[in-house]
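dumping this here before i forget
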Amino acid sequence: MPLLGLGVYAMEDGPETENAVLWALKAGYRHIDTATIYNNEGSVGNAIRKSGIPRDEIFVTTKLTEDDQGYESAIAACELSLRKMGLDYVDLYLIHAPHYGPELRSASWKAMETLVSQGKAKSIGVSNYSESHLKELLGSNPIIRPAVNQIEIHPWLTRTDRVAFMQTQNIVTVAYSPLAQAHKLNDPVLVKIATKYSKSPAQILIRWSLQKGYVVIPKSSKKERIEQNVDVFDFDLADGDMAALDGLNENYVTGTVT
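structure:
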C-alpha cells in the first residue's frame, strides 16, 4: 500500500475527478482513494485506463456506504463499484462507517471476507471506527482481521489513544483530511515550521503524518497542489518540530464522523 495517495472526496464525477487522478498518476502517485458515496468511481476507473499505467501498479481503495451494509447488499455493492470502475478487483475495500448496529456490521464484515475469497478485494478494512467498534470486530474472531482503519487525523486531531490501540493490533492508520480541510493552514506554529523548511504548510502536514507512520491521502483537484503534495520525500521534520505540531491537538474534527 503506497504511503501517500490521492483522495477524491467531494470531487465532481467527470472531468474534475478524471483530471485529478490523471495528474496524480503522472506526478507519481500510485494510490487512489474513492468511495461509493463520492459518486465518482466511474471517473476514477476512466482515468486509470487512460493513464496507460498497468493496473497492478495502482492501488485502488473504495468503500461500502452505510446504506449498503448487510451480507448480500455488501457483496452487490462491491460488484457494482467494480463495474463502475471497470476493474476486476479493488486493492482495499472498506466499511465506510460503523452505523446501523452490530448485526449489520457483522454481516457486512462476513461479506468483505467473502469478497476476498472471490478475488474481488485484495484486502479489507474499516473507516471511522472507534476503539470500541474495533474491539467489537476483533472480538468476533473474524477470519480476516481489518488491515486498516481510515480516520480523520492531523495535528489538531491526533487521536493518540485510538492510534496506540490500532498499533497493538497491527491495524494501519490511514489519515484522511490530513490538511484539516485547509482550516488551519495559517496556524502560526505551522507557518513558522513551513518557513524553516521552505515548504508549504500542506507539505509539512503531510510530512508529519508520514513520520507518524500513517498512510496519508490528501485531497486536491488542482494540478499544482497535487504535484506539490507528493513532493514531501526530500526532507525530515526534526523531533522538536514534530513535538510542536503534536502540541496543537485540540480534538478538532472537520468532518461529520468522529
